[in-house]
């Protein structure tokens, strides 16, 4: 028979346990956070993968709308999203005047894609000068002498070249036209480099996916997309001759080679240009994608969760990036990026990171 003292001790323990269980039952669960972003289609396949894996890990949802770099810049400046995506880096002056912070998320390659009978990945070779003349409307048939000279032994049709380009304000177009401007004086003087240009010839598709769809739709077409879209859509890409005079294929290693000499400075929002990079292994149409956020926001919980997402993507999302053929940011750059988050971005009156 238990003593009175033991009965009191047991009773006290049971009451305490009941209180703990009651607290667990009635305490509200931490609400999941939704992080809204919009912008560039260039990194969208990777952002979607990161978002799915991050939600499975944390319960927080990243809702990214791939509307093009121009749309992403407009959305973050208007404050309708928590972050904007752009493959065209904003200048330090624009960032300052608009109260924004910018940082790179990943590196990828823009690739020419073609729909031609008998042409598989890498079978067709092009140079920057020839590609520019195609987009200028100066080379109009696939068996033109300039193309045949680069592709001895390749059967090329006499059909017309049907050019496809972007219809929206596009960072992918900015990278592509920046490259054409670097390799063709005529392109630089007549068309130039921008998110939107006055295209001399061709039909337009919205987003990387729109360009890929149009190229796939009809024989004889050529377009340009971020490499992941070529892989996912199974549309053949061309080899390109780089600044070192070597024909190279798009790949993680050729994108990384082009990025190896990039300069990442916090002072200019980490903006950098990698087209026509030096090096025998460099893919000539390589670029970074950028994230743009406001320097001040009122919602600390959501802003902090957003930076948790990007921190997780940088450090735990590297295998996903490689699988989708994107190059992860060097950890030395990540360290400097996170210093900027801490020192320059405020949420609810305190550092968001």
Question: What is this entry, summarized?
Answer:
The protein has helices at residues 4-26, 44-58, 69-78, 92-98, 128-136, 145-150, 171-183, 185-190, 207-217, 227-233, 252-259, 300-316, 318-323, 331-344; strands spanning 34-39, 61-66, 83-86, 100-114, 125-126, 162-166, 203-205, 221-226, 239-241, 247-248, 286-294, 296-297, 327-328, 346-347, 350-351. The protein is α/β, with parallel strands linked by helices and 353 residues long.
Q: Which fold name fills CATH's third level, the topology of the largest domain? A: D-Maltodextrin-Binding Protein, domain 2
Spatial shape? elongated
Rg, alpha carbons: 25 Å
How much helix is in the residues?
Answer: 40-55%
Beta-strand content estimate: 15-25%
Distinct helical segment count: 14
**SS class:** alpha/beta
Q: What's the number of structural domains?
A: 2
Report the major sheet.
9 strands, mixed
Quantity of strands, as a count: 15
Low-confidence stretches: 1-29
CATH class of the largest domain: Alpha Beta
Mean residue pLDDT: 92
CATH superfamily of the largest domain: Periplasmic binding protein-like II
Q: What order do the SSEs take from the amino end to the carboxyl end, as H and E?
A: HEHEHEHEEHHEHHEHEHEEHEEHHEHEE
CATH architecture call of the largest domain: 3-Layer(aba) Sandwich
Kindly, what is the distance between the CA atoms of the first and last residues, rounded to a whole number of angstroms? Answer: 60 Å
């Amino acid at each position: 028979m238990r003593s009175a003292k033991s009965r009191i001790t047991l009773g006290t323990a049971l009451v305490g346990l009941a209180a703990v269980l009651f607290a667990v039952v009635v305490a509200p669960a931490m609400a999941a956070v939704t992080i809204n972003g919009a912008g560039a289609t260039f990194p969208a396949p990777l952002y979607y993968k990161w978002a799915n894996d991050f939600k499975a890990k944390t319960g927080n949802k990243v809702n990214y709308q791939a509307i093009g770099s121009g749309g992403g810049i407009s959305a973050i400046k208007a404050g309708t999203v928590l972050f904007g995506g752009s493959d065209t880096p904003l200048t330090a002056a624009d960032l300052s005047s608009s109260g924004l912070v910018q940082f790179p998320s990943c590196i990828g390659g823009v690739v020419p894609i073609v729909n031609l009978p008998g042409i598989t990945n890498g079978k067709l070779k092009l140079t920057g000068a020839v590609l520019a003349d195609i987009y200028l409307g100066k080379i109009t048939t696939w068996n033109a002498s300039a193309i045949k000279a680069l592709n001895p032994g390749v059967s090329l049709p006499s059909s017309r070249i049907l050019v496809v380009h972007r219809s929206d304000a596009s960072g992918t177009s900015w990278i592509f036209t920046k490259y054409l401007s670097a390799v063709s004086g005529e392109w630089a003087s007549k068309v130039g480099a921008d998110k939107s240009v006055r295209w001399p010839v061709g039909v337009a598709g919205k987003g990387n996916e729109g360009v890929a769809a149009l190229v796939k739709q009809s024989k004889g077409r050529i377009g340009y997309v971020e490499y992941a879209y070529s892989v996912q859509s199974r549309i053949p890409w061309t080899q390109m001759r780089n600044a070192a005079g070597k024909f190279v294929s798009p790949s993680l290693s050729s994108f990384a080679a082009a990025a190896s000499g990039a300069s990442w400075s916090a002072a200019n929002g980490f903006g950098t240009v990698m087209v026509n990079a030096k090096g025998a292994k460099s893919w000539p149409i390589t670029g970074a994608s950028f994230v743009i956020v406001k320097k001040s926001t009122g919602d600390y919980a959501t802003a902090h969760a957003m930076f948790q997402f990007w921190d997780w993507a940088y450090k735990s999302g590297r295998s996903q990036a490689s699988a989708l053929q994107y190059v992860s940011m060097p950890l030395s750059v990540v360290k400097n990026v996170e210093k900027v988050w801490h020192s320059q971005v405020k949420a609810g009156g305190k550092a968001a990171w």
